[in-house]
Amino acid sequence: MEETNKKLLNRLKRSEGQLRGIQKMIEEDQGCMDVMTQLSAVRSSIDRVMGILVAENLKACIQNPADNAEEQSKKLDQAIQMIIKK
């Protein structure tokens, strides 16, 4: 899990840098298409982080099932809802 967290944090830091770059682009009146391209890249990166988090949650839920079957089912349903909302 520590390795996954490190990868997620690196991806988020990259997205943060991209967002700062987008702010600068807007301040410098860069073209709309260039700004949109960068915004799309940030969105894709964030979507990837969300996907990894949900996948890790599902994997943990399956590998370490709850003692209570109802609680286990609830956790799985929550993970599925996170995927569907996307």
TrEMBL record:
The lineage of its organism: Bacteria, Bacillati, Bacillota, Bacilli, Lactobacillales. GO terms for biological process: negative regulation of DNA-templated transcription. Gene3D superfamilies: Metal-sensitive repressor, helix protomer. GO terms for molecular function: DNA binding; metal ion binding. The gene is ricR. It comes from Jeotgalibaca dankookensis. This is Copper-sensing transcriptional repressor RicR. InterPro entries: Metal_Tscrpt_repr (IPR003735), Metal_Tscrpt_repr_sf (IPR038390). CDD domains: BsYrkD-like_DUF156.
